[in-house]
Specification:
2 domains, four-stranded antiparallel beta sheet, Rossmann fold, alpha/beta, ABC transporter transmembrane region fold, about 600 residues, 18 helices, elongated
């Protein structure tokens, strides 16, 4: 599985990456057909205009009647009306097509990313992912919404104008054809370099976005350590690196535009010079030359348009390549092909059989080493031990964030890998040490535990978690917005919200990771009562560093180095001595 974090630009697959857009455009074929239809009408109307001007020049105002002049200009205005209507309709179709296609792309991309396993997010930066969801998709949208339209219109106009040039004056058209290779040469030479710089530019912008996301989400830590100036300098350095890459890309594209315009209009000047000699020699009518010149201008404008949009195409190809990398990511933790349904109702027995596990980021250190543990239904088991002992890894394995490299984990006798992820995780309520609060209302944050819960159930869960009083005191009560990451709440209040979620979920298996670590003594006593009620009839695993909070557990499992080194009650472990007794001495004596 690839790492999406990009530190250096990688070779691009060139514009072939844009083929990945087809599945998102395919459902909107009607809009695409409408766009092509109106493109043809508008291009045809444009190609008629030089013929009208030839007629005006050849006939001459002095040799025409008032009626002929009226008919000519009425026809010319009619062509302009057709051109205006077709252009507006073309714009409507292609713009709506781009909006719908990119909405589908963003939905698909987010759905794919949010379903990737925890290991993927350990290797990736959120700012980088957000850059691909926003900046990269906007680049692709700009290509579909305007770039493709300009490109295809330019191609149609170039082909149409070229055909009309051949029909109008074959000799002059042949002279024009001789300079076409000279016009295309710089596009080929500069194009690949522009694309590489476009990809590098997107990567550097993503780096800057990752730094901003990281530091803004940790604004309190930044302020606590007075690092505002340091982080500003770090972000500025990332922005200047992005700017330097963008400057090289812009310079290369400017050179491409310069070369194309000079060559195109040099070719037009050459053709005009040859045409003027034919007119003076009497072998070519002035109206024919005027018509040919207009078609040549159309063709030159189309080539210039193609050179301009080519840079957008290359930039979008680089962005789509980055998006495709995310779409190609596959989760390693997936549902089995033929899942086994977990029993209903569940008893809640858990068993770890000789489980060994190494985190992918730390392959040389065992997080769990030949770990064996049997937990009876309804039993409350506390996991204690020093940091790095493997306690949180036990929770991660139960939630199937990872699979063991060896051994087996089962719930009610069924291997976790045999059940679907939704079925397994639906049986678990988690109260994490670091509570996540979303930028929604208090009720929405509690309802995160069970989406279909009624308002009365939400309030009952809040009361059980000792959260009702402080929520009611907020402006708008349960409808109060808690702010991003719960900035309006204290640490203890956030933790009570998490406990309310777990109560509302009403799952047979409860995981408590330092569930009262952010509470004061008075609140902790109330929460302990709520947790005792919550644990009744459920299998409960508790992680706690404060041993005073786990003395009521049915069994205490002492871990060190990914192994179980002792287990028993608080009193038996104290009598036994060893690691638990040492931890107790350090805490209670202090």
């Amino acid at each position: 599985m690839s790492n999406v974090t990009t530190d250096t630009p990688r070779p691009s697959r060139r514009i072939g990456a844009l083929r990945e857009l087809w599945p998102f455009l395919k459902p909107h074929r009607a809009l695409a057909l409408g766009w092509l239809l109106f493109l043809g009408v508008s291009s045809g109307a444009s190609l008629v205009l030089p013929m009208a001007f030839r007629h005006i020049i050849d006939q001459g105002f002095g040799h025409s009647s008032q009626a002929v002049i009226n008919e000519t200009f009425i026809a010319l205005f009619g062509v302009a009306l057709v051109l205006a209507f077709a252009t507006a309709a073309r714009y409507f179709c292609i713009t709506l097509l781009s909006e719908r296609a990119l909405a589908t792309l963003r939905q698909t991309l987010y759905a794919r990313v949010i379903r990737l396993d925890v290991g993927f997010f350990e290797r990736s930066r959120v700012g980088e992912l957000l850059s691909r969801l926003s900046a990269d998709t906007e680049v692709v949208q700009a290509l579909i919404g305007s770039g493709v339209s300009v490109a295809l219109r330019s191609v149609v106009m170039l082909i149409g104008a070229s055909a009309m040039m051949v029909w109008t004056a074959p000799s002059l058209a042949g002279l024009t054809a001789l300079v076409i290779p000279a016009v295309m040469l710089p596009i080929l030479l500069f194009g690949r370099r522009v694309q590489k710089l476009s990809r590098a530019s997107q990567d550097r912008l993503a780096d800057a976005a990752a730094i901003a996301n990281e530091t803004l989400n940790a604004s309190t830590a930044v302020k606590a350590y007075a690092r505002e100036d340091i982080e500003s300098i770090r972000y500025s350095s990332a922005i200047f690196r992005a700017l330097a890459t963008a400057r090289r890309r812009i310079g290369m594209r400017a050179l491409l535009t310069l070369a194309v315009i000079v060559l195109v209009f040099g070719a037009i000047t050459l053709v005009l010079w040859a045409g003027a000699r034919h007119v003076l020699a009497g072998t070519l009518d002035a109206g024919v030359l005027g018509q040919f010149v207009l078609y040549a201008v159309f063709a030159a404008g189309s080539v210039a348009g193609l050179s301009e949009v080519w840079g957008d195409v290359l930039r979008a190809a680089g962005a789509m390549e980055r998006i495709s990398e995310l779409l190609a990511e596959r989760a390693e933790i997936v549902d089995p092909a033929q899942p086994t349904a977990l029993p209903r109702p569940m008893r809640g027995s858990l068993r770890f059989d000789s489980v060994s596990f190494h985190y992918p980021t730390r392959p040389d250190t065992a997080a769990l080493n030949d770990f064996t543990l049997n937990i009876q239904p309804g039993e409350t088991v506390a996991l204690v031990g020093p940091s790095g002992a493997g306690k949180s890894t036990v929770f991660a394995m139960l939630l199937r964030f990872y699979d063991p490299q060896s051994g087996r984990i089962s719930i009610d006798g069924i291997d976790l890998r045999a059940a679907t992820l939704a079925d397994l995780r639906g049986t678990i309520a988690l109260v994490p040490q670091e509570t996540v609060i979303f930028a929604g209302s208090a009720a929405d944050n509690i309802r995160f535990g069970r989406q279909d819960a009624s308002d009365d159930e939400v309030r009952a869960a809040a009361r059980a978690a000792e959260a009702h009083d402080f929520i009611s005191a907020l402006d708008n009560g349960y409808d109060a917005e808690l702010g991003e990451r719960g900035v309006r709440l204290s640490g203890g209040q956030r933790q009570r919200i998490a406990i309310a979620r777990a109560i509302l979920r009403d799952a047979p298996l409860l995981l408590l990771d330092e569930a009262t670590s952010a509470l004061d003594a008075q609140s902790e006593a109330a929460i302990q009562q709520a947790l005792e009620r919550l644990e009744k009839g459920r299998t409960t695993l508790v992680i706690a560093h404060r041993l005073a909070t786990v003395q009521r557990a049915d069994r205490i499992v002492v871990m060190d180095g990914g192994r179980i080194v002792a287990q028993g009650t608080h009193e038996s472990l104290l009598a036994e001595g060893g690691l638990y007794a040492e931890l107790a001495r350090l805490q209670f004596v202090a």
